[in-house]
Amino acid sequence: MRSDTKLAHVFSLLFSPVGIAFLVILVFTLLTPRTSEYTAMPFSLILGILFFCFFPVGAILYSYRKGVVDLWVSDRATRTPFYIIAILSYLGGALLFYLLHYDMFFLLALAYASVTIVTLVANRITKVSTHMAGVAGPITALTFVFGWQTLPLFLLLPLVMWARLKLQAHSYVQLFAGMIIAILVTSLIYLSLYT
Questions:
Q1: What is the predicted pLDDT for the residue at 40?
Q2: Which of 99-103, 155-159, 172-176 has the lowest mean pLDDT?
Q3: Cβ(72)–Cβ(169) under 8 Å?
Q4: What percent of the chain has pLDDT above 90?
Q5: Count of domains forming the chain
Q6: 75 φ, ψ to 5°?
């Protein structure tokens, strides 16, 4: 395997949707501007990992181990059940975070659910890049919460795009679709509800 292909695999793993979700949960847990939520840090971190990482990716890992799908669920026709599981996880998390008054996690879960719903619908037309959505959406959320200093994080998007193109996982249209869906839907959620 060529070194640039190996690097593309590394980038795909590092910037996978579940990896980025974990990092964003960590940032929101440790650096949230809402001090009332900071006091519940260990509990919110555990819940965040469960609803943003464990439940959405658990079914994929199980199916991968059974040989049903590859790790990235490359076949567009097999993605729908995994999208539905992720949507239910995000919505379940949003409800729990709302009831617990974890506003930062509530909005994030709502944004994740909304982006995944739109991606599920768009998946009927083309295989939207969940890698691009999984990076662009959370960075958009971080920008709304922490301000302009997080804008350089958007420079990760060309790296992810290069990696997914190098691995021939997506076309340009599919990559841009994931990015645009995530940025627009996340922005709509935060512009409507973040105060």
A1: 65
A2: 99-103
A3: yes
A4: 85
A5: 1
A6: -80, 115
| pLDDT over threshold 60, residue 39 | no
| Measured CA angle at 91 (ends 49, 25), to 5 deg | 25
Record the pTM: 0.94
- What's the burial of 89, exposed, middle or buried (CB within 10 Å: 0-12/13-18/19+)? buried
| Token pair belonging to 176 | 């841009």
Residue span of the structural domain in which 39 resides:
3-193
Q: Identity (one letter) of the amino acid at 171?
A: S
Which tokens belong to 187? 């922005």
CA–CA separation, 48 and 8 (whole Å)? 28
Alpha-carbon distance 164 to 21, whole Å? 18
Extract the tokens encoding 109: 């879960």
Phi, then psi, of 123 in degrees rounded to 5? -65, -20
Q: Pick from 133, 136, 123, 117: which is nearest to 178 by CA?
A: 133
Look at the block and give the residue holding tokens 């971080």: 142
Distance, CA of 104 to chain centre: 15
How does DSSP classify residue 53?
I
Rounded Cα gap, residues 70 and 41, in angstroms = 35
